[in-house]
Every structure is written in structure tokens, then in C-alpha cells.
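Lecture 7 notes: from sequence to structure.

We start with a single chain of 425 residues. Read the sequence below before looking at the structure.
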Amino acid sequence: MTDDHPAAAFAEAVADQLAHPDAVAGPSTAQPWWRQSLAHGAPGIALLHIERAAAGLAPWQRAHDWLTYAARSPLTAGADSHLFHGAPALAHVLACAAAARPGSYEKALEGLDRVITADIQRRAGFAQARIIAGRLPALAEFDVIRGLTGVGSYLLRRDPGGEAVRAVLEYLVRLTEPLKINGETLPGWWSASGPSGRDSVRFAGGHGNCGVAHGIGGPLALLALAAQRDVTVPGHRDAIDRICAWLDRWRTDTGAGPLWPYWVNRSQLRAGHRDLDGPQRPAWCYGTVGLARAQQLAALATGDTDRRHIAENALIHALTNPLHRAAITDTSLCHGYAGLAHIATISASDATPDAAARLHALVPDLLDAVQPAAGNPEHTAAALLGDVGCDPAFLDGAAGVALAALAPSTATLPRTGWDACLLIA
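Now the structure, written as C-alpha cells:
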């Protein structure tokens, strides 16, 4: 991995073109949600400037201007908020800023923490009552994007010994326990809807979601990260083992390495088998790359050397197989080349020496898809920001691409913990 890949210049060009909120205009920016959406709005752009300022690559004023802009409007709290929208979203960004500038933003963070902690304890209580009543969960109850797992990752950072973290972890342990519905035993995270969160003929009887963004991969990552920090609750290891056993059951070992399905529907569960639908896009949100990282974290937390070996090799195979690479269609953080380069870099920092060397060797090629050596970084950034349908922000937009490209292109690891919201670190 080189220290000066052209993707670093691309990240700088994106940051320059998003230097101030006044430089960003479009139909979305006038919407009330835009100032408080980590996924698609101002907080995600602030993260880019915070990380660059922390690395000494840009002035802090840019980050401050974006934070001020994001915090200027009332924040959503309660049931309609989650890690990627509302009070928890801004809190995550402020926590990253505070990591770069210790002592800053503490008053604002303390106020947000009180609101978030009270809300999460209520939500965890409702979720536990749902389990006791024997009802299946909605994905939004537990997932990373909208659910308790996502906000739990923020609380683990801010107050690892707190009651709210414990409430989330105790809930996740219960979530992994099987439920009997109409005489049929289902995984506790089985959702009655389809992956979209809506009823679907294709998913009559619901589905078991395996992804990191919306499925059981996210809770596995949070349980593992908490265990690595010695933050555990009764049944913690059993919960990790149950999730891993599910992933083992549905793993397909191929010549291109192990693969996990995005989800399992009711008929496949009853048959105990599902055929993969051809090549899969390797990504953070769904697919082998995100699940390989989650299992690597679980293996590190439990000392499972076999799982660590399987996870690291799965990641390497997913990033090298031409059929799976061909399924990648963009450069985004969520499911594109920049996200893959970042996860490869983060995973390499925890990998065995041989796997780490192989992962590092793959990074320049992944970054070439973000910024070709023969291309002009400013033109690439302008083209990405000018694409019809491309937002400038975090999950699918230019700021996320630039953030994800930063660490692998400069041979460093994140300084602010911005990627904690992805449950990969």
C-alpha cells in the first residue's frame, strides 16, 4: 500500500468542493431532515472535515462551520431518531470532533447523551416486552441503521459502563434466543416482513436477515466490540456463539471462498438449504465483506482462531474474485470500492501477518477504481458531485467516498473513530 495514492488527492478535492454549507445546493438541502441526516445530509459532510482536520490536512474552521450548520435546527429525538438521523446522528459527529479536540463540545454532548440514554432505555424495555409477548421483531428494532444496535455503538463509545449500554446488550442476548411462533421455532431476529421492512409476497413468512446494516451481522459486531472492551452481560458469549452458528449453517463454501446469503426466507429455512443467486456484490451493508469483518471481530473477542482464519480468507477471496468484483457498480462507502478499501485496511490492522499483507496488497487496486492514476482528482470529484442522483453526503455520496478513501490512501487509521457508526471498529 502506497502512502500517496491519488485517491488522497481526490479526497482533498471533494473536501474543497464541500468546504462550506453555502457551496452545497440542491432540492434535498432545503428539507428539514437534511441538517440531521448522517446518512444523506450535513452531519456526514461534517465528518469528512473533522477527520481531515484531525489528520492535519485541513483547517478546523470547515468542520466547525458544518457542525454549526447541522446543529442550527431542532433535532429529532425519540422513536423517530436513530444513529443515522436526529439526535444520535449529530451526537456521533460531535463525539468524533471531541476526539480530535478534547474538551470541545462536551456541554452539547452531555445534553444529547441524556436524551439518547433515556430514549434507548425506553426502547430496550419495549423490545424486551415484545420478546416476552412472543412476537417477531421489525428490522428497525435492532439493526445498525435504525435500531438499538446502531445507537448502542454510540453508547459503547461514550459510556461503556453505563446502564443504557447494558440494556442494549441484554436485549441483544435475548434477541439471539429462538422464538416459537405457531409451533415453529425461528431465530429470535426473524422478521415477519421482507428486507424492505414491508410485507412482500416474495417473503411470505418473513425472513432472517444476515446483513450488517439491517440484519444479525450488526448485533454480532456490537457484541464482539463490547466484549473486546470487557463490557459484557450474562449470556454474552452464548449470544455470539448462536449468531456464529447461524452464519456457519448458511455459509456456502465455493472455489471463490466462503459466501453468506443476504437473507433466508421461510421456505429456505424449512428446507434447511438455499442456493445463492449467482455472484454477490461484496459490500459493508450486505454481503461477504461486512460479515467477514463482523466475524473477524467475533473471533478476536472469543479467541476463535479457526473463525478468524475463515473470516480473513473470506474477505480476501471476496475482494479478488472477478465475478464478485464485477457486481460492484459504484465507489460508495456503503457498497462500493471506497468502502471495500477502507474495510480491507481496518481488517488488515487486526489480521494475522499473512492475511494482513495480502489485504494491504489489494488496497491500491481498490483505490484505483475510486481515483485512477491517470485521472484528474478535481475532475473526478466534480463528476461524482455532479452525477444525477448522487448526494454529497455519507453512505452513498461523495463525502463518504472521500472519508473511506482517506485512511487506505495515506497509510493511516482513522483518528476520530468516524467509522464506529459502521460497527467495523
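The beta strands are 179-181, 184-186, 207-209, 252-254, 257-259, 263-265. Keep this in mind for problem set 3.
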